[in-house]
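Ticket opened by: R.M.
Priority: normal
Category: complex prediction / small molecule

The reporter submitted a protein together with calcium ion and asked that the result be attached to this ticket for the collaborator who will pick it up next week. Submitted input follows.
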Amino acid sequence: MMDSTREGGVVFEDFFPAMMEKLGADGFMKELCNGFRLLVDEDKGVITFESLKKKSGLLGLKDTSDEEVICMIREGDLDGDGGLDEMEFCTLMFRLSPALMRDSSELLAEAINFDEM
Ligand SMILES: [Ca+2]
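Result attached by the on-call engineer:
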């Protein structure tokens, strides 16, 4: 059975499996890893406020405000070191809005729409 923590993340119960089905588990993880590599601060090996701010344009997130970036880091930073490592990033991606995913990859959007039909 699914362990559904319903803290405003209800949508992912539908969204997540559909994506997995479409891309396969490997392809899905690859997408997330690609995202991480795009955003990571190469010196530190984690995603920081600076790296996220600087590189978010690559994912079509140019309009993201400082406040939103800070929220994203804070939301995803599970061990409190101020940066997102790969696991924290992947975890965060599962929890973020599908709209963000849609911006970063049309493929993911298709997976979402597919599920709604
Ligand atoms: Ca961290």
